[in-house]
Structure formats: C-alpha cells, structure tokens
Amino acid sequence: MRKTLLIVLLLVSTQVRAQKNSSKSYIEKFKDNAISIMHATGIPASIILAIAMHESGNGNSAIATNLNNQFGMKGAGRITYKKRRKRISTFYKRYDSVLESFQDFARLMTERKKFCHLASDFSHYDYQGWVHGIQKAGYASSHKWGSQVLGLINKYQLNNFDEKPETDTQINIAMANQQQQ
After folding, report:
1. Which stretch of DSSP H or E encloses residue 78?
2. Residue 92, beta-bridge partner list
3. In this predicted model, what pLDDT tens digit does every residue of 114-153 receive, in sequence order?
4. Which of 16, 56, 109, 125 has a CA positioned 20 to 30 A from the CA of residue 174?
5. DSSP for 154-168, written as a single string
C-alpha cells in the first residue's frame, strides 16, 4: 500500500512540475506576440497571455494543438480534425498560427460592441480592470474565471510585460540622481 501511495505521489509531483514548466515555456514562446498586439491595440499583454494560458491549458488542449485556437473561439462553419485515429467535428475556429489566434482575440476585444469600450475604460497597464471588464461583459460563464486569470497573471508576473509608463516625477527623480553623481 505504501509503495502504491509513493508512486502516485511521485507521478502527481512530476505532473505538477511539468505543468509549471509548460506555463513558463508558453510564456517565453508567445510573450513577444502578446506585447506586439498590446502596442497595436492597447490590450495588456498580460491579459492576452493569461487568457490564452487559461483557455488552452498552456497550449495543450485539443483545440489548441490541433487548430491553433488558444481562446476557444467558435466559428460559423464546422471544422474536422483527427485526434488519435478519430475524426472530430467541431465549430471551433482553425487558425494557421497561434499569432493569428491572438490577433483574432484582439479583434474580438476591439470590435465587438460588448468589449470595445474596454480599451477606452482601462489603460494597457490596468490588467485588473481588464479582467473584471471582460468577465462583466460576459466572456466566460464561470464565476471563478476572473480570479483564475488574475491568479495566472500574479503567479507568473505577467503584468511585467504591460510596460507601465514612467511618470514625470519618476523621470525627474532619476535625472536628479544622475546629476548628483
């Protein structure tokens, strides 16, 4: 019994460690895409990354691996793909790349009536406002969704990619310090 319990614990800890590494590698792989979209649209890079990580299981979900769909976006037509010798038919969108999926999410956030006000309501460094605004607008039905996305942002410090602008006071203090040296 003890050996079985030990084996189960080792497998679980290995799985948790693999999941952590998967999150970090996902961030490293796609952070530049998220930052580029942030500069083009005003949507925080932390929001793009955290929602993609949450919705796609760090790119490991079936629709992420087979359709490059990181956000669970649905389309108008039926798509078919193979999964372990089975043909799967779904209404999820297929993308040529993960970047294309990120761009479609940004389009949704900037063009759909229920989300387009967010860019004017929140700056690109107010990730908490964005999460609450997206949830309030009805992006996800789960009441835990917002706290889960915020948990990812905080755990992996994704808000560091949002580039908070320096205030005039910070610039003046930095310049004064340089002059004194």
Report:
1. strand 74-83
2. 74
3. 999 999 999 988 999 999 999 999 999 999 999 999 999 9
4. 125
5. HHTTGGGGG-PPPPH
R_g of the chain, CA atoms, integer Å: 20
Tell me the whole-structure pTM to 2 decimals. Answer: 0.79
- With vertex at residue 134, the alpha carbon angle to CA 21 and CA 158, rounded to the nearest 5 degrees, is 30
Number of domains in the chain: 1
- Degrees (nearest 5) of the Cα angle 109, 98, 91? 70
How many Å apart are CA 161 and CA 139, to the nearest integer? 23
The enclosing domain of 44 has a CATH number of: 1.10.530.10
Give domain status of residue 37, yes or no: yes
Residues 72-93: tens digit of each pLDDT: 999 988 989 888 888 989 999 9
**Residue 70 corresponds to which tokens in the numbers above?**
């990181």
DSSP string, 120-164: HHS-TT-HHHHHHHHHHTTS-S-TTHHHHHHHHHHHTTGGGGG-P
Is 78 domain-assigned?
no
Sign of CA dihedral 63, 58, 133, 159: negative
- Is 91 part of a structural domain of the chain? no
CA distances 107 to 18, 111, 117, Å, are: 32, 6, 13
Residue 149 lies in a domain: yes
- Tens digits of per-residue pLDDT, 15-32? 544 444 599 999 999 999
